[in-house]
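Attaching the record inline, Q. Sequence:
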Amino acid sequence: MTPPVERMLPRHWPEVRAVYLEGLATGDATFETEAPDWGRWDASHLRACRLVALAEGGRVAGWAALSPVSAREVYAGVAEVSVYVGADFRGRRVGRALLEALVRESEAEGIWTLQASIFPENVASVALHESCGFRPVGRRERVGKLRGRWRDTVLLERRSRVAGAD
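Structure, as predicted:
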């Protein structure tokens, strides 16, 4: 059963952060090595398009949010996607529910391009994004180091047929 997806509220932060930490532990979710505090996370993400998937009892099963790719006005409709699913909820369509809801909400906010930068080893995340209309646009080789090891990322994007279509 697909969990309900709701707007993320500041009270969700401790559980959102815990899910983020589980993603960090995989070594294939992000170049970050520690989870930020609420203030830093809040400042780096768009106010709109912050979602949580809730399991029974209201437990946060996963979260999704958007970050601006640039402060320049010309890129106001371009955002980077983050989707994280708790270890106990992987493989249960939580990521799909979050990403589909994030796409709908981003279009309602006028965002015309979503992009995701994913480690190629994170096969499930690449497949999820492709199944939700993202297409690979390139591979960035040795784009950064994580724990002393060079890592590549696959860059995927989704262009809206709704927002920015004029």
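The domain at 5-159 is CATH 3.40.630.30 (Aminopeptidase). The mean pLDDT is 96.

More tomorrow.
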